[in-house]
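call fold(seq) -> C-alpha cells
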Amino acid sequence: METIALNTSTPLRPVKRATTTVKTPIDAKRKVEDKPANQANTPKRLINTKDLSHDKWLEVRRQGIGSSDAAAACGIHPYLSMLELWLIKTGRMTSDIDESIDGYSPLYWGNTLEPIVAKYYQEKTGNKVRRVNAILQHRDPDKDFMLANLDYAISGSDEVQILECKTAGEHGTKLWRDGVPLYVTCQVQHQLAVTGKQAAHICVLLCGHEAKIYKVERDERLIASITQHERLFWQYVETDTPPTPDHSESAAKALKLLYPTPKPSSKVDLREDKGANKLFDKLLGYRASMEDLEQQHDQVKHQLQTLIQNNEVAVFKQGAISWKRSKDSIGLDSKAVMKAHPELLEQFSKTKQGSRRFVVLTN
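ret:
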C-alpha cells in the first residue's frame, strides 16, 4: 500500500496578534452566488444533527469513518491509534478524551471556542459561513463508509467551500510549527472527498492568542490513497478483526482493554509459528540493543557528572544540563503504620485491580 504523502496545504499570511491587520490572498470582494451542485458530487444527508442527542450522534458515527477518524484509520494520527479506533467503531469502548484528567478537556474547549474562531475568520476574510447540521455520507455506494460532520460551509466564495476550525494548546501548537499537521490535512481531504468540494480553509487558534488561516485544495491522488487506507480499515471493522497495533500509547491502552484478563494457567505454543518466532527474535534483538545503549548512555552521563562536580548547571554549545538537588519531603511509612496499628488496614483498605505484566523469559 502506498504511503500517504500529506503536503498539500497552502498557508495564508498569518495573524500574529488580534490588532494586526491581516493581508491574505483571499479577495473578499470577489463573491459569487453558490453554483448549483452537481448531483454526482453532492453528499447524502445521513441524519440531521440539530436536535440529535450526543449518544445518538455517537451511534450514527459508528456506522462509518468520519473526517476526525480519517487520520487514525490511515495510521497517522498523533494521539489515536488504528487499534483504539477499531475498538470504538466495534463498540468495545467509548472515546474518553475529556475524562482522563480533571480540568483537561480539549474537546470541550474546542467546541466552546469554535464559534469564536469562525467569527474571527469571517471578520478577517469577509467570507460568510453557515452551520451544516447534518452528518454527510459519500454518495458513491462503494464509499458509503465515508462520513463527514463539517464545522461550517462557506457561502458565496468561488475559491473555497469548507471551513474547519481548530484550537491548539501549548503542546498541540508544536504540531503546527511547519504548517498544517499531517492528520489535519488528512481530515480535510476526507471532507473534500465526501462533499465533492474543491477547497477548504483551516482557521486555527494557537494558545488562545494567535490565529492562522490555511488553504487546502482538493488532491485527487491523496484522496485516492486515503480512501484505500480507510477501506482497508473498514474491512477490519466489518469482519471484527483487530488491525496490527503500532508503537503508540493509544495502542498499548487498546491492548489492555482488548485482552484484560488471561485464563489461569493457560499457554499458547508458538514454536512452530515462523512469523511469531521472527517477532520474538526481533524483540530479543531490540532489548539487547536497548541494554547496550543504556549502558553507553549511563557511562557518558557519569563522565559528565564528574565534570559538573558540585555545580548545579553545566552549559554547552548545544544546550545545558541541570543537576540540582530536590527539596526534602515527608512521606508516610505505611509499613510502620500497619505494624503499629494493623486494624487500620481493614478500616481503610482499598482493592487495586491488577494489571497484566509483560515479562520476557529466555532459554
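The first strand starts at residue 9 and ends at 11.
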